[in-house]
From TrEMBL:
Gene3D superfamilies: 1.20.1050.10, Glutaredoxin. It comes from the Bacteria. Residues 90-213 form the GST C-terminal domain. CDD domains: GST_C_YfcG_like, GST_N_Ure2p_like. Residues 1-87 form the GST N-terminal domain. It holds the Pfam family GST_C. Keywords: Transferase. The keyword Transferase applies. This is Probable glutathione S-transferase. Belongs to the GST superfamily. The keyword Magnesium does not apply.
């Protein structure tokens, strides 16, 4: 059994997509990031960066004691290795998937995250910041659109790269992106959207998705963090 510490945000959805695709048993432990659950000592013990998602695997493949993993990219790699699924064994194909996973973790996620921040959450509209992150998101969509030319999935077979990227394209309207400008990406997006496991993954988040991921009260807690919190 896997405990998933989760909130229905793009990084959270990545993991429910994997768990649903692989048919693994899991329990969701909600981490309400607007209410400060990410600062509870029990959560920090498994996720010292006070960010969700994180997992605790009570039956690791190593056969040892329970183990925990934080960072969504690391969790996807861990689960892919545990199950032998969605990450090819062939070294060339494997590194191709890993490089697109890293592209999401180091590029699309952080840039689209800043896009959401300045477009949606920042108390002042800062035109330079909005333009910077809307443009960068647009550039990254262009890179992905090119990669998807003549391919069904980001790297040939469906993989953890698709699972990592898709939740960050779901809010494309908030990000001020038009999928009609990216025909390959649009085709892939619609194929992802209609996968039964993806539908189930988003349904899993439904009990909490009706609330805003970031409430008014949560904003200062989320956006004013320093080393001293
Ligand atoms: N690089 C991390 C980012 C995780 C992340 O930013 N999680 C956000 C929600 S999407 C969070 O937990 N925020 C809580 C906070 O800012 O205190 C990952 O991919 O797991």
């Amino acid at each position: 059994m896997i405990d998933l510490h989760y909130w229905p945000t793009p990084n959270g959805h990545k993991i429910t997509i994997f768990l649903e695709e692989a048919g693994l048993e899991y329990d969701i432990h909600p981490v309400d990031i607007s209410a400060g659950d990410q600062f509870k000592p029990s959560f920090l013990a498994i996720s010292p960066n006070n960010r969700m998602p994180a997992i605790v695997d009570h039956a690791p493949a190593t056969g040892g004691a329970s183990l925990s993993v934080f960072e969504s990219g690391a969790i996807l790699l861990y689960l892919a290795e545990k199950t032998g699924r969605f990450l090819p064994a062939d070294p060339q194909a494997r590194i191709n998937v890993i490089q697109w996973l890293m592209w999401q973790m180091g590029g699309l996620g952080p840039m689209a995250g800043q896009n959401h921040h300045f477009v949606k959450y920042a108390p002042e509209k800062v035109p330079y910041a909005i333009q910077r992150y809307v443009n960068e998101t647009n550039r990254l969509y262009g890179v992905l659109n090119k990669q998807l030319g003549g391919r069904d999935w980001v790297v040939d077979d469906y993989s953890i790269a698709d699972m990592a990227i898709y939740p960050w394209v779901v809010p494309h309207e908030t990000q001020q992106q038009n999928l009609d400008d990216f025909p390959n990406l649009k085709r892939w997006f619609s194929a992802m959207q209609s996968r039964p496991a993806v539908v189930r993954a988003y349904e899993k988040g439904a009990p909490w998705s009706s609330r805003p991921a970031v409430t008014e009260e949560g904003k200062s807690l989320l956006f004013g963090q320093t080393a001293n919190r």
